[in-house]
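Holo prediction. Input below; ligand is glutamic acid.
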Amino acid sequence: MLKDEPHFSRRLAAVSESKTTRIFAQAQEMRRQGREIISLAVGEPDFETPMPIIAATRQALTAQHTRYGPVPGEPALRERLAQAFDGYTADNILVTNGAKQALYSLFQVLCDPGDEVILAKPCWVSFTEQIVLAGGRPVLVETGEAFELDPERIRRAITPRTRAILINSPNNPTGAVYKIEAIMATADLAAERGLYLISDEAYHAYTFGRPHMPALVVSPDRARVVTVRSFSKHYNMTGFRLGYVAADKSVIQALSRLQSHTTGNVCTFAQHGALAALEMDQGIVAERCAELQRRRDLALARTRELFPCTAGRGAFYLFPDVRGRLRNGETSADLAARLLDQAGVALVPGEAFHGPGHIRISFGTGPETLTRAFDKIREVL
Ligand code: PMP
Ligand code: GLU
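Structure of the complex:
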């Protein structure tokens, strides 16, 4: 190695940059250069942050809520969040800088080197990388028909090194909402083997037909269920960076100990905005869910003109199988690059989610934009 070549840790060398955030940046850069780019890549709907949240945040700023606060979160916010979980109090809640930091911290506190975390693929980009950053080993199992969770495959993947099972429903990138029976069987399995069950419920507000079932509700071992949620998608507050963990007090204390050395408290005035999100009329969330369902119907019909595709039942993603459209030797990543270049439509290739042969389509944009994007994709294909 040359003497002045920069050298970073092996830990960092083991992970690559997030492929979702990289594609958002690429699309933005192309726009800056004057290209017309439609993004169906971004993991956020185009809805505005509701006004009561903005007003409360502004008010908190005016009132000088701009200082350090308690590391695990503003007491009023923790108390309010706890109300959604039977038997929980403020001590069962930790407010984090997005669900992303919550998950990162969780793997840091749960995993010793070589510990295994079982999760189903395709899965969100950051799970595996965060487990690796904690010295753990992600163990990926296949999903079943229509990307359903398969508890039998999870059972077969358990070893003496298994520390936790991670589930994500509604799912990013497939849009699957897991059947209650599958969640129950997985919760029973985790309880039986003394494993933590991490339930990423970042999209729990958005389901179309099949209801969301929180793992905590069906688990026989509540002390080992760790629920991770977020204000990002639920309340269109992605830039606020607000998420939370709901779990046994021992887990919250461990996470809080770590957080006291990493970020400290989450932005104080943003937490006041979050409290307003919980207190406001929730009708707007229901309206937005209904709008997303209309967009899902449109996107699904247009996607199926081009590719076989499972009907996503939640979140705002479709994950079609594009293998039938690949040219000789082309991968789904190549296809996504071709669509970005020739159609000006940004999509995230399945490779980002351990699901090659697919692409992820986000239907967070409005119907006109969706229609225009599908027209362009169709033209190129
Ligand atoms: N979990 C899943 C499944 C996600 O898709 C995302 C990205 N929205 C996150 C966690 C992190 O969300 P945030 O940090 O914005 O709360
Ligand atoms: N989770 C969103 C997505 O998958 C946002 C980007 C990210 O943090 O990965 O697109």
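Residues 43, 98-100, 124, 168, 172, 200, 202, 230, 232, 238, 243 surround 4'-deoxy-4'-aminopyridoxal-5'-phosphate (ligand 1) (CB under 6 Å). That is the main takeaway for now.
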